[in-house]
């Protein structure tokens, strides 16, 4: 199972919106609405930001949103803030009843 | 407080075995599937293995299939990862995480335990 494809890095200025893509296949991202997104700060455990493509856990800022089209899921961060600078990972359930992570994206706030 | 605490990591020679443990507290352990996720130094996250609430379903990533075995003891509120035939590429921080029965996302993670495979 190959890792889902994410851009290595995305950057934006404070207040701007950025979008991180997560591309898989019809056997994972495209086949199920079971994509979730995690934020990971250096030296910390991952934190759930979005589940089931577009649902936000309580306590997560409304600035984070998720969507999916075909085999590509996306995480959008609006009103970018300095605290959003972090690594972000997508993960999808697969047709083999396993899970596969994305390659990870480093978000830089300029 | 909901908590997952991993243990059992350490330095091990290639070809040897190691058993990781993850102790859960603060929630009804039987209601959750459990996972192991690892992160090699400077690298991304990799799903290693998962086990359903009643051990009826177990899954493994391609890189560990046939070498690693996941198990759980609901009475002890613990999940384990038996790692055999270790190779240097298994060097990583190993996280334990939970998924509520029927869901497909990990909402609580431990802090991880470090495994180093080196001669």
Write the layout of secondary structure elements.
The complex is a heterodimer of chains A (110) and B (119).
Chain A lengths: L8 E4 L5 E6 L11 E6 L6 E4 L13 E6 L2 E6 L8 E8 L5 E3 L3 E5 L1
Parallel strand pairs in A: 1-9
Antiparallel strand pairs in A: 2-6, 3-4, 3-7, 5-6, 7-8, 7-9
Chain B lengths: L2 E5 L2 E3 L5 E8 L6 E8 L5 E7 L6 E3 L7 E6 L4 E6 L8 E9 L7 E2 L3 E5 L2
Parallel strand pairs in B: 2-11
Antiparallel strand pairs in B: 1-3, 3-8, 4-5, 4-9, 5-6, 7-8, 9-10, 9-11
Describe the structure.
The complex is a heterodimer of chains A (110) and B (119). Chain A is mainly beta and 110 residues long. Chain A contains no helices and nine strands. In chain A, a hairpin with a 6-residue loop joins strand 3 (35-40) and strand 4. Chain A starts with 8 loop residues before the first strand and ends with a strand. With 119 residues, chain B is mostly beta strands. Helices cover 0% and strands 52% of the residues of chain B. Chain B has strands at 3-7, 10-12, 18-25, 32-39, 45-51, 58-60, 68-73, 78-83, 92-100, 108-109, 113-117. In chain B, the strands form two sheets. In chain B, strands 2, 4, 5, 6, 9, 10 and 11 form a seven-stranded mixed beta sheet that branches. In chain B, a hairpin with a 7-residue loop joins strand 9 (92-100) and strand 10. The termini of chain B are far apart. The mean pLDDT of chain B is 97. Classes of the chains: A mainly beta (110), B mainly beta (119). Chain A binds chain B through residues 1, 3, 32, 34, 36, 38, 40, 45-48, 51-52, 57, 87, 89, 91, 93, 96-104, and chain B through 35, 37, 44-47, 50, 57, 59-62, 95, 103-107, 109-112.
